[in-house]
Amino acid sequence: xxxxxxxxxxxxxxxxxxxxxxxxxxxxxxxxxxxxxxxxxxxxxxxxxxxxxxxxxxxxxxxxxxxxxxxxxxxxxxxxxxxxxxxxxxxxxxxxxxxxxxxxxxxxxxxxxxxxxxxxxxx
Length: 123
Prior knowledge:
This protein has helices at residues 2-39, 44-67, 79-92, 99-102. It has a domain at 2-67. It is elongated and about 135 Å long. The protein is mostly helical. It is built from four helices and no strands.
């Protein structure tokens, strides 16, 4: 029961704060409409509508800038991907095998060893 009452109290406080902020915002927009009425040849209603439109536009712009997910930078990516690219580049950059080496019969392997034959004995 205490948890329910605590939750309701928190919800009531949040609602009150939200209502207070909305009231201050509405009075602020109406005050800007009044200033526009005095500075330009507008009615207070027209000035308030202009102020409200500008406020909504600025709010939308701030929302879009704040909610924009930053693009992943290449240096923050997976390091394994960069290593793979470097390995591929290293394989491509190897010099070609020269013709005299290509025609070598062993291609880098040693031939099998033959048993050594000693000097021939006279008969």
